[in-house]
Amino acid sequence: MGVNTLRNLWKKYKEIILYLIFGVATTLVNWVVYTILIWQTGISMTVCNAASWFAAVIFAYITNKLFVFESKSFAPAVLGKEIALFFGARIFSGVLEIFVPTLLVTAGMEQTIFGIEGFVAKAVTSVAVIVINYVFSKLMVFREK
After folding, report:
1. What pTM value is reported for the model?
2. What angle do CA 39, 98, 86 make, to 5 degrees?
3. How far is CA 61 from the centre of its chain?
């Protein structure tokens, strides 16, 4: 594959590539916070998921705005609208992120891997949430005017 081919692929798929990179990074933020809370606090899986989700959403908004969708405006009205839409969309996917793993564990997907309770259920949910969040961000939050 030549340099020109790689440049063309980058140009064509830059947004998706960056979204996937930052989506993985956001998922890592979510998982790191979740794992630390599960291992260190003794609080419920649902509360750990809620806290890890909130940390991940803050990280995701910043990286999506600046790097993925390159939203250049920092006018208060634009920021307010973006933040409201972003958090609104993420509340929907956040409900999935918080409760679906618990439901999957209750339904029998209760594998603990690497000492992390609900590992498989959380992994399945994470993949679905990445896709849902891209669609919301692309079509609602950072859509081109």
Report:
1. 0.73
2. 120
3. 9
